[in-house]
# Entry
Amino acid sequence: MYAFDYHRPTTLKQAGNLAAKNAEAKLLAGGHTLLPTMKQRLASPPALIDLSGVAELSGIALKGRNLVIGAMTTHAEVAGSDLVKAALPGLAVLAGGIGDPHVRHRGTIGGSVANNDPSADYPAGLLALGATIVTTKRRIPASEFFTSLFSTALEEGEIITRIIVPTGAKFAYQKFRNPASRYAMVGVAVAKKGARVAVAVTGAGADGVFRWAEAEAALARRFTPKSLDGVALPDPKGLNGDIHASAEYRSHLIGVMARRAVLAASGK
Amino acid sequence: MPRVSMRVNGAQVSASVEPRTLLVQFLREHQRLTGTHVGCDTSQCGACVVHVNGKAIKSCTTLALSCEGAEVTTIEGLAAGHDLHPMQAAFRAHHGLQCGFCTPGMIMAAIDMVNRLGPDLSEETIRHELEGNICRCTGYHNIVKAIRAGAAAMGGMPLAAE
Amino acid sequence: MAATGIGARVERKEDFRFITGRGNYTDDINRPGQAYAYFLRSPHAHAAIRKIDTKRAAGMPGVLRILTGADIEADKVGGLICGWMIHSKDGSPMKAGAHPALAIGKVRYVGDHVAVVIAESLAEARDAAEAIVVDYAPLAPVVDLATATEKGQPAIHDAAPDNQVYDWHLGDKAAVDAAFRKAKHVTRLDLVNNRLVPNAMEPRAAVGDYNAGEDAFTLYTTSQNPHVARLVLSAFTGIAPEHKLRVIAPDVGGGFGSKIFIYAEETVCVWAAKKVGRPVKWVADRTEEFLAIAHGRDHLTHAEMAMDADGRILGLRVKTRANLGAYLSTFASSVPTYLYAPLLSGQYNIPAIYAEVEAVYTNTAPVDAYRGAGRPEATFVIERLVEVAAREMGQDPAQFRRKNFIRKFPHQTPVIMCYDAGDYDAAMKKALEAHDVKGFARRRRESGRRGMLRGLGYSAYIEACGIAPSAAVGSLGAGVGLWESAEVRVNPIGTVEVLTGSHSHGQGHETTFAQLVAGRLGIPIENVSIVHGDTDKVQMGMGTYGSRSGAVGMSAIVKALDKIEAKAKKVASFVLEASETDIDFRDGKFTVRGTDKSIDFPSVALQAYIAHKFTGQQLEPGLKEGAFYDPTNFTFPSGVHICEVEIDPATGVTRIDRWTAVDDFGVIINPMIVEGQVHGGIAQGIGQALLEGAVYDKTGQLVTASYMDYAMPRADDLPSFTVGHTVTPCPSNPLGIKGCGEAGAIAAPAAVINAITDALGHEEIAMPATPQAVWKAVRAVAARAAE
# Structure
């Protein structure tokens, strides 16, 4: 790593002030993407603002029909939360499948969302669920938040404070892990709430997480895996290809994972 | 240089460190606790797993300064002299190690597994839970056996031994 | 005593330090005043170095010294060597290009060593390395193994203008041609043996230390054979003569072959320690390991096997291209030749075999021995051939093998080896039962009902281990003898230290060797210490590889123990006042035959040192003996592995449902440790078959340079294994040991691929059989069916 200055605020206000003053500084949440990148000297922020001391950013609450998850809530906390397991069990399963147990003890929902790694799990889940990302400045719907690979609607100095996730949907996420990294090579989140069906895909899109409209339309008619038979798979031209999976294979896996997610969301 | 203080294996320690110091460097280089190892650069192999505030984490992907005030347990903190932690004893009894390099991380991960999931662990659960720990020697066969036995033995002892 | 002797499942003596975090690996060693080395590595696969500007870097904080190839030349530091001479068909010697520890004039692979920065801290060394300006003139890279020797390819070494290292052959071409003319059926296969990265969990490391007062060096290093390291560093690089160079290989976190070799980094650490007057420490990060450690395998093979109408094998013809990378590593040349082709007979009676091997340079990391080294490649060839031949001829693959098994020993193959003992049918029978092969058809139907494909594959392997008779390997080109040494030091109170030239880096020698000694001398195992890995303690040794430590290393201990017993009997004869020839030694006691006069071993040891009962003219005091053991033959471990897979055709995911191994390792010292070796070997073989593969892109960049892209087997990729044994003692060594360290890695790949191809009904699938590769095969089968 290159040298950097380090700040560890204890309140959101302090964090906000530090971020405002240090335009080039990076926020350190769980650090499981940022620190490896810095170790390989692929990133060299002059300062880190470590949010781990800001207690008000952690915690899970059920407010009305929404789950409100603090940005610094770890994957392990979401996975183990009785509130989440009761209100949106598929989200607990998603969180419990991120990385490995040690990573889940450090990695946070806010960090994952802010980083928008194209193979991260949360973006697909939150997009399918119609979540809202709340920052120190505003509320951003997930559909507007995830803009492209590793990029989001966040502006400089803006800090994610919490994620609001509507409950009440049938929801499941299924992923096909990259055999080496174990990140999602293809991950599909499916949510159905009333007439709304959302299918969000991670790991595959050349432009990051995306929604699969054809599948949504078919599933809106009837929410069963069979509905996807005959639905055109996402065009490989818009998908990633690498040594692990060609775009064609990814396209195929999206269909398989979507069917499995529909089955799981239906409680089967 | 900023100063960091934490409790490591029950002892209060403190040092001035560069901000870029990782917890594993703090443990190995400042505290000379060399049982915690580094086996990769990408937070995958798990040779560096220690417990921070009772939870298994990768010390190669954690800044020492982030652990200000934390309670840290390393592999060196498990046994009292020759009185081994049941998980350590199980790794020896079941030949759960060969070269020994991944072993500290494996044992720390295994204890964390029991802390979270209880002492009755199936083979499938153990294999799944070992996603963050790579071993090149054993083919995991005997590690799985050791963890099952170590977990059962931990079930017979008071929890929260740290 | 029975609880700790040969054959007992003794818990490992070395484990306490490892499970309590008190191991002592090279990176755990810190010398007073040590500085840190960071290597600037080539970003290009192939480039001329026009100029290296270190001026700005040299002035950066903490920098002590920057060294480049110019310093290597100025100090006349000799290049790294390849210690096995291979001659081509035409009698010409292999073309070995120079291999300086720091590049001189040219870089030849991504990761090649361009310069080293020695600084107060690693971070400062790395900062400065980034400030070194290297003016490269990039050259076209030669990356593709298949086309590396084609006309128009740039030469990687001047010594090898067409990039060919050698064009070697073995066997009788005319006899094979004749056999094929008689054949009623010929099976042909094109095979890829995928390139692997060894990935011991401990990255390589070195600490060089120079004592100016004594003009002597110490090197702490991650080595499987510290004496060989010292020999090479002394005799070839010329940094220090052997008596001024101590090499210590402390606890080593796995090797699998990759830590046999003498690399640039440790060479530089020793050399630089004197130049900067400070100890110099280097520890590889995982990326450096991927880039610059010696890789394994990487063959392209076309193989043909001729059968008569009944399916008896008449002849075998093999043509292989082997990638040796950019430089010849320490034993690289021997791997695709003498460690490969002599094993092509497998367990079968094959009257005629002819193998040709063309080894080539490419702009990739050097390739050398990795667990099994040549033998997994040979096994993959022969075991794929017999499986496919059986299928093509409509015969049961197990019965096809049994029909062709060698049944009389000794058996001289047409490719050098003389198999001394074995019972291949016994292992096959036991494996068929243990695996419940009879129940396979039912299990396959049950899988089918769930929409899954089930397949079963065999691998009946043989290996040549216990490497090796010195004269024999010398006649084949080896630069050294492959004996082993031992010294047994008995202390006055009867405790024993055994110094061995073998090196343990996971194999458990501290336990198994102690089992031998404790059992033989009748003393508690706690009273035996095994000392290894330090050239100042152990006089000489050849190290650990090729499953040789039991068969060769322990045999040397047996020879030394024979001498100890003989000397101790002499001592006892004086104490007991009896003739030496009347003294029996059993269960730790010397007894005068036919009397109740006896003395135990510790008391004899004490008497040997007190020396009151005999004069110096009658007997030398003390009890210490050494021995060198040179084997008379290779050993031939063999066995049958059966792999059963279930494939999800929707995703291409292969799950190994069950695995049965029945191995014949001869006499087993510690079944617990042997089983562990088998498990680990199988895991590496499964890794090769399903997960692992080093991939370079067209420009010579290593795409799989971290665990993000190189798939290591994890716990949930593997099943538990059913492991059993048959025993035919090895006749060529005193303990009857054959060796077990490589078996799993040798056997497994063919078993997995035979199972997958069985499940798919499709023979064309390359390793690693990733989900994507299997999915493509599923689609190919469906397309074929639709036609």
Q: What stands out?
A: Chain C touches chain B through 55 residues (CB under 8 Å). The first helix of chain C runs from residue 15 to 19. The mean pLDDT of chain C is 97. Chain C has 19 helices and 28 strands.
